[in-house]
Design a protein that fits this description.
Strand order of the largest sheet: 3-2-1-4-5-6-7-8
Number of helices: 12
CATH topology: Rossmann fold
CATH class: Alpha Beta
Largest sheet: 8 strands, mixed
CATH architecture: 3-Layer(aba) Sandwich
Shape: globular
Number of domains: 1
């Protein structure tokens, strides 16, 4: 399993020969980058995919190729409105899906923002934590009953989780200076810890949750970074890899970046990926700050069940709901 696919595998290669007719998927952030490619790869194998997008008009324009793939394969693709920076929108979208009552085999929580200037969501939470974590926390938990027994939840995280653990008593950076990538790191750690907490609550019925790092990819995610910030990040990464004796960093293509999501969703054994963090189409090893993390891996705090439970309770407190 671990050796069949790797960093350069594409979503199409991972799903080669896989028949997804009759399978239903929900993909958030389906109107850009990885969300479009993930949806396309799934419908091309006959799957029925619901894409959740903030802007329905943009979503319709951006997903023409997904609809064409669905026509050819016999799958289907439709859109629902979901603004993860607005908990009322997350609840409304979940309510609509619950009212229809159509179940899903897999939910892929793909949407997110990165390194934004300091700001707050409609509900008053720091933008990245509020959007990347709390929006999905409410939306996914509210539709948890629609995930079929034996189904899966795939949360998109990032190697950026290594920037910081979640700081539960400083969600809005009221006690510390706001640093865009530290805030991003906290939100990406939260994505992993949410997977651990969700997995613990649903694995008794065979529903497993995992988090994935898609790799470094040029997508709309980096739109908040200046050219200088971007070049500085690449230069720092280059130096770190050289010091670690590793080859130069290479960006993944969007098809390669979508591979780990569909691998974890469809191909990998459920018990292997449950409550884990995956990268390059395999389950990552647990590492610490002193390890050579340029070679990959997940920090232990991100997959710590006790930390996951603490985040779950804090998240419920923040959104005013218990799940």
């Amino acid at each position: 399993m671990a050796d069949q696919f790797g960093a350069k595998s594409t979503a199409d290669e991972v799903l080669a020969g896989v028949d997804l007719k009759g399978k239903r998927f929900l993909v958030t952030g389906a109107s850009a980058g990885l969300g479009i490619e993930t949806s396309r790869a799934l419908v091309a194998r006959g799957a029925d995919v619901v894409g959740a997008v903030r802007d329905l008009a943009k979503g319709e324009r951006a997903t023409a190729e997904v609809r064409e793939a669905a026509k050819t394969s016999g799958g289907s693709f439709s859109l629902i409105e979901l603004d993860l920076a607005d908990l009322a929108s997350a609840r409304a979208a979940a309510d609509k899906l619950n009212a229809k009552g159509e179940t899903f085999d897999v939910v892929i929580a793909n949407a997110g923002v990165m390194a934004t200037p300091f700001g707050k969501t409609k509900d008053g939470f720091e933008t990245q934590f509020g959007t990347n974590h709390l929006g999905h926390f409410v939306f996914v938990n509210r539709i948890a009953g629609l995930i079929k027994d034996g189904g899966r939840l795939v949360n998109l995280s990032s190697a950026g989780h290594r920037y910081s653990d979640v700081v539960l008593d400083d969600i809005n950076f009221e006690k510390s200076e706001y640093v865009p990538f530290i805030a991003y790191g906290r939100s990406k750690t939260a994505n992993i810890q949410f997977s651990v907490g969700f997995d613990a609550r649903h694995k008794a019925r065979g529903v497993r949750a995992t988090a994935v790092h898609p790799g470094g990819i040029r997508t709309e995610l980096g739109r908040h970074m200046s050219h200088e910030q971007f070049e500085g990040l690449l230069e720092n990464l280059k130096k770190q890899r050289e010091a670690a004796g590793l080859p130069p960093f290479e960006f993944k293509s969007i098809p390669q970046g979508s591979a780990t999501s569909v691998w974890a969703a469809v191909v990998a054994p459920a018990d292997a990926v449950g409550a884990s963090y995956c990268e390059d189409c395999h389950v990552a090893k647990v590492v610490g700050p002193s390890d050579n993390v340029m070679g990959g891996g997940v920090y232990s705090y991100a997959v710590d069940p006790a930390k996951a439970e603490a985040l779950w309770k804090k998240s419920e407190e923040l959104v005013g709901e218990t799940f």
